[in-house]
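step: validate -> pass
step: tokenize input -> pass
step: predict -> running
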Amino acid sequence: MEAAADAIRHAGGIGIPTVKPWDMKTIEEKMGLVEESGAFAVAMDVDAAGLPFLQGKNPPAGPKDVSQLSEIARMAGRPFIVKGIMTVKGALAAKEAGAAAIVVSNHGGRVQEGTPATAEVLGEIRDAIGRDMMILVDGGIRSGTDVYKALALGANAVLIARPFVTAVYGGGREGIALYVEKIGRELVDTMKMCGVSRLDEITRDCLHTPASPYIHF
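step: predict -> pass
step: emit ->
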């Protein structure tokens, strides 16, 4: 995490470091690095507690209850984001703990086999926590149409990872710019075809879902 904190510091705090769910003493040490980086927010991928490569590590990693998350949010001293939420219960716990936002994410499906798609749970999570908490979502979002679906289901924004890795290795700065332009163009085109002109007009009734109340990305 030292390298990430250093990179964020050199970028003027533009970045969100993600702390693994280590033991509380280690988390406090990591938050010291976050403070030094000047990051404008910090996240914790709580679902990483189940990753095989973290099992038996020293320091240990493991699940965090509401009281522990509350303490971590206090340590953070800046907006605290809980990543890895897939249930209403988890979302409400994060909200109770004082998280500024959650990321609906199944960790790329690598934690537990049979995990539902994020699109399947996003709508019910938004319904449960209301509109006063930010929701980000990831999980196979690859096009502007996917972004549209996520916004319609209640997300404030989306996270995209792997396509940017391909773009930066294949085309550097230009590759990133082209991919971002592609996503934006597809989103605008989808909005026009669905009869909306502003992002805040994208609501769940803008989706046609005959087979299921939710739609897959």
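step: describe -> The longest helix spans residues 162-193.
step: cleanup -> pass
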